[in-house]
Amino acid sequence: MAREQTRGALTQAALRAAQIAAPFLLLALLWQSASFSFPKYLFPSLTDVFAHVVAIFSSWALFSEVLATIGRILAGLIGAFLLGGALAALMYRFGAVDRFLAPILNFFQGIPALSWVVFAIIWFHGTEPRIFFIMTVTSLPAFAFQVLDALRGMSKDLVEMVMSLRPTLMKMLRAMVLPAILPDILTAWKVNLGNAARVVVVAELVGATGGVGYELLRQQQLFDMAGALAWTIQLVLFVLGVQQAIVMFETWVLRYRPTSERAA
């Protein structure tokens, strides 16, 4: 019986892996087919792209550019999350603050990332302050509104019941607020991570002398499509890896939630 259950679990895992891999295999097949019919600078073979990826991983000088971009993404997201969370708490607590800040945050959301790049170049000296400002200000409205919506989504009856016990601020945050808003916060991180990866490329294209965005600009100048794809894959792998880490953390920390007994 146990052997049959193990075999069934392995079969389901294999089917899920095949379902995930199938679209990527089809895309790779189509790309490789196009490489036989078009010039190399338009559709390089997957072998050439893989060779560029290996070259980036095997060279510290090149891989350090990837790490620099990753550091910029994480620094900007952490800054935006901390500031956006603080603003959301104030907006949730005070209606006047909400009425004052909401239009400003909506206005900021309408400003293109490229405009923020231009502003940062004019306002700041140095690459890192510029990119940190761009990453923070472009992610700030989304984090603020997402945390605010999570706070507003808490059960009013449950909040009143917990408040009737006269908890300390830390106990209130730990026992009531954080468990209630954590799922929405993790979702916000997964969404904003992809947006930040796109914004950092724009910031580095215009305002940096290093990083994945800068390297993509160099590949464009060299008309090297294989190199451009290889550098793009670095960001994709980072985003997928961090999102998977968030999913694993979410599964662990929210393991108390009920799950359906039916198989997916």
How would you describe the oligomerization state of the chains in this entry? single chain
Name the CATH class: Mainly Alpha
Radius of gyration: 23 Å
Return the domain count. 1
Class per helix and strand makeup: mainly alpha
Largest sheet, in brief, is: none
Strand content: under 5%
CATH architecture: Orthogonal Bundle
Proportion in helices: over 70%
Spatial shape: flat
Helix tally equals 10
CATH topology name: MetI-like fold
Q: Tell me the series of helices and strands, N- to C-terminal.
A: HHHHHHHHHH
Give a count of the beta strands, DSSP E runs of length 2 or more.
0
- The overall average pLDDT, rounded, is 86
- Uncertain runs are none
The CATH homologous superfamily corresponds to MetI-like
Note the gap between the termini: 22 Å
Write structural notes for this entry:
With 264 residues, the protein is mostly helical. The protein has a single domain (55-253), classed as MetI-like fold (Orthogonal Bundle). It is 84% helix and 0% strand. Helix 4 (95-109) crosses helix 6 and helix 5 (113-123) crosses helix 8 (169-207). The two termini are 22 Å apart.
Summarize the helices and strands and which ones pair or pack:
Layout: H1 2-37, H2 46-58, H3 60-93, H4 95-109, H5 113-123, H6 127-152, H7 156-163, H8 169-207, H9 212-222, H10 225-253
Helix pairs in contact: 2-3, 2-10, 3-4, 3-6, 3-8, 4-6, 5-6, 5-8, 6-8, 8-9, 8-10, 9-10
